[in-house]
Amino acid sequence: MSIMRRFSFNHATAKFWDQREAVEACARTGSGIGLWREPVQEMGLEASAKLVKDAGVQVTSLCRAGFFTDPTQAAIDDNRKAIDEAAELGAPTLVLVSGGIPEGGTIDSAREGVKEALSVLAPYAGERGVTLSIEPLHPMFASDRCVVTTINEALDLAAPFPAGQVGVVVDTYHIWWDPQVWQGIARAGREGRIASFQFADWVTPLPAGVLTGRGQLGDGCVDFKRYLAEVDATGFTGPIEVELFNDALWARPGAEVFEETRAAFARVLE
Amino acid sequence: MSIMRRFSFNHATAKFWDQREAVEACARTGSGIGLWREPVQEMGLEASAKLVKDAGVQVTSLCRAGFFTDPTQAAIDDNRKAIDEAAELGAPTLVLVSGGIPEGGTIDSAREGVKEALSVLAPYAGERGVTLSIEPLHPMFASDRCVVTTINEALDLAAPFPAGQVGVVVDTYHIWWDPQVWQGIARAGREGRIASFQFADWVTPLPAGVLTGRGQLGDGCVDFKRYLAEVDATGFTGPIEVELFNDALWARPGAEVFEETRAAFARVLE
């Protein structure tokens, strides 16, 4: 089976590309798609669900909820809404970025907030057939974006819940530096928690703002073949999303970025 | 005892300040000093050693050697030279930043290079009464500057050697995000490996280039009181160096930065 059968294009890689065109490109190439809430809401939830269904495109994830380190009612409500959206779109998983340190808090208190939010949201997600994917982000985002920083930390947060309710994202960009990464991936597989598998490359120098420095596959130091081998060794056979936040890519036509990304994906896994 | 008795000013905090003036300021205030190889070499090793000795200033560390992920003979020779310099200056410890991923290597192979280099350098350092301090750097530097990213990883690297030969740096800037940080500090203390304790604050947004974003104490999210309590709870009673790489500080007069840094140190530990 060609590895391209597992390719999924995360819409954020061509952030400003029309959602309909992105879905059509995925349909033509047999690719999956990772959708984002904002374009989905712009088109309308029902219309978006119909679009992917009619096109026969697998939605591999919905991005993104979370931001509940201060688990206010508003934050919980928005996450419930995101779970409903994922269910309606047929997305097996909703990606959660935890959020940073709330005003007056510490990273430890923020992590307690995440536990609290998950305890409320996990059963709700489970009832709707959606697995919550806790995404550890690179530690350079720990204060302002995501206090969850390693795969083992994400697994510890997931542990109190059934694997069908809470899993983790294995995103090469965020975890490639971790001395425990191979052990963490094996553990995630053993515990049945790999709910999303994403590729992006690590390239330096980082751009100002650091958010949009994710490199095209092959441009950096991530050994994608090894990641694929380690993840597959756990028995995982799911899709692999390519999600690149990159200003230079965002400035280019989506169709071109889509083709380049498919080619890079094939090349790094050759 | 006033906490100021443990204050040490790392010369890099006022990078362009004359070494003699920095040492004199430390002498006047009873502070220690963390020296850097480049200014030491500029003044001359013997003259620098005489300067601190005559001033009665404790050299708390010499920065910086390492960069041996590709442990060539030249890299090893330079590290031996740095060890000799530390011994001559009376510095109890030499800080090691491992270096990034060598051309054609992976982070795993780079980490093997570090082990190899340490096995050659540790006995050499031990014979000269210098402890090598492995410094884990923030993972945003993992590809191009330091493949050692966590306190536990540094402790694992130190483990094969006597604690008198190889210890670790506890630098708040680099490790504050780590979910294992409190456990790691306790372990470092238990294993007698805390060879250097450094303060800098984590502030966002990071500047372009990310190297010079270390915040003045109190400007960011690091809980310095907690760090001091956790480190002291292990029985550590050594100096605390403030080391800030910060373009805005570097642009100002050294004497002013020195006073501000002492005041900030006192304030965050009040």
From TrEMBL, chains A, B:
Gene Ontology molecular function terms on file:
isomerase activity
Q: Where is the signal peptide?
A: none
Organism's domain of life?
Bacteria
List the InterPro entries hit by this protein, alphabetically. IolE/XylAMocC-like, Xyl_isomerase-like_sf, Xyl_isomerase-like_TIM-brl
Boundaries of every Xylose isomerase-like TIM barrel domain copy: 31-259
Q: Which Pfam families match?
A: AP_endonuc_2
Key words of the record: Isomerase
Q: Which PANTHER family match?
A: HYDROXYPYRUVATE ISOMERASE, XYLOSE ISOMERASE
Question: Which protein, by its recorded name, is this?
Answer: Sugar phosphate isomerase/epimerase
